[in-house]
Every structure is written in structure tokens, then in C-alpha cells.
């Protein structure tokens, strides 16, 4: 059992890496995509719309396979599995985050921008001190839902052979002819999701307290 838990823990570290790097790159990229989605330049808006439709309209597992294998078959170039996983997760989740950001930005009344301009505030000051805090509060529930989904989706990395938690559980289950490793992996995922949920609950409570 100790050896099994050690393997699971090692596998979960990979899941945490995928989770952390995806958020690190997808959150800012999602904002850029959201601005492109709201752009007045038609070609930019059209291209961003196509990107979002593809990312949201096809399974992440298919995107993983495409990102890993397509460069080799098309250009004769290959790269490591972990890099393919991060690229796939980032471009997928950036599309979802973009739509969340867009809904939050469009929920802000345009009068607030006009009032800030009348008061002499710069665009940067208006955005970071007046608009962004409101947007963040509006999108927090949806953002929390996507981040929790991301925790579970990290298990898909095993599709292209990345040694994460679920893959470790499957290998152990095959060796021991037991489903126990699968259940233990489920407990690991539950704990990770619980911690993420707890974090967002604390953030929401803090925001409500300082209202």
C-alpha cells in the first residue's frame, strides 16, 4: 500500500504541474482572446471566433492527439509529450476563459467608462481599479467551475502517454488485478478539487467582506 501511495503521489505531482502551467498561460491568453473576440476589426473578430468554435466544439482528447502527432506528420517535427499536453490544455482553456472574460466585460455598464473619463481617470487606471474588480466578481463562479474541470481534465494527459495520476492508477490496477488503485486515484482527484473549491470560497468570502 505504501508503494502504491508513493506512485500515486508521484503521478499527482504531474497533474499539479499540468494544472499550474495551464492556468499560468491560459488565464492571460484568454484575456487577449476575449479582447480579440470583442474587437471592432472584422477579420480579427472572425479569426478569434473560428478559434473559439474549434476549441469548444471538439473534444480536448482529440486536440491532445492532434497537437502531439500533427507536427510530425505535417512538418516532420516532433517534441516531447509534456510540451504537447501543455500546449493543448492552454489553447483549449484559453478559449473557455475568453468567453468567461467577455461575459464579465460586457456586463459592465458603459456609463462607468464615461464617468471615469469625465473624472479624468486614465484608461489604465479605470480598467485596473474600477472595471477589473467588478469583472472578477462577476466571473468568479464561472471561473471556479472551469478551474475545477481543469483539475479533472488533467487525467486526459495519459492519452498520449504522460505518466500522471490516472495512468499510474491504471498501471497499478493491471499489475495487481485490482480496482483499488482507481478508487485511490479518485480520492486524490477529490482532494485536489476540494482544495481548489475551498480556495475560491475563501476568495469569494473576502470579496463580499470588503464590499
Structure description:
26% of the residues are buried. The chain has eight helices and no strands. The chain is mostly helical. The radius of gyration is 20 Å and the shape is flat. α4 packs across α6 (123-153). It has a single domain (2-209), classed as MetI-like (MetI-like fold, Orthogonal Bundle). Helices cover 83% and strands 0% of the residues. It starts with a helix and ends with a helix. The longest helix is centred in the first third of the chain and has 36 residues, at 2-37. One of its GO terms (biological process) is amino acid transport. Keywords: Amino-acid transport, Cell membrane, Membrane, Transmembrane, Transmembrane helix, Transport. Pfam families: BPD_transp_1. It is a multi-pass membrane protein.
Offer a quick outline of the entry.
The chain crosses the membrane at residues 12-34, 46-70, 82-103, 124-144, 177-196. This protein has 211 residues and is an all-alpha fold.
CATH topology: MetI-like fold
CATH class assignment: Mainly Alpha
The rounded distance between the terminal residues' Cα atoms is: 49 Å
Shape: flat
Main sheet characteristics: none
Order of helices and strands: HHHHHHHH
Number of domains as seen in the coordinates: 1
Q: Helix count, per DSSP?
A: 8
Helix/strand/pairing category: mainly alpha
The value of Rg in angstroms is 20 Å
* Regions with little confidence, pLDDT below 50 for 5+ residues: none
Estimate the mean pLDDT confidence: 90
The CATH superfamily title? MetI-like
Number of strands: 0
Helical residues, percent? over 70%
Note the beta-strand portion. under 5%
InterPro entries: AA_ABC_transptr_permease_3TM, ArtM/GltK/GlnP/TcyL/YhdX-like, MetI-like, MetI-like_sf
Protein name: Amino acid ABC transporter permease
GO molecular function: transmembrane transporter activity
Keywords: Amino-acid transport, Cell membrane, Membrane, Transmembrane, Transmembrane helix, Transport
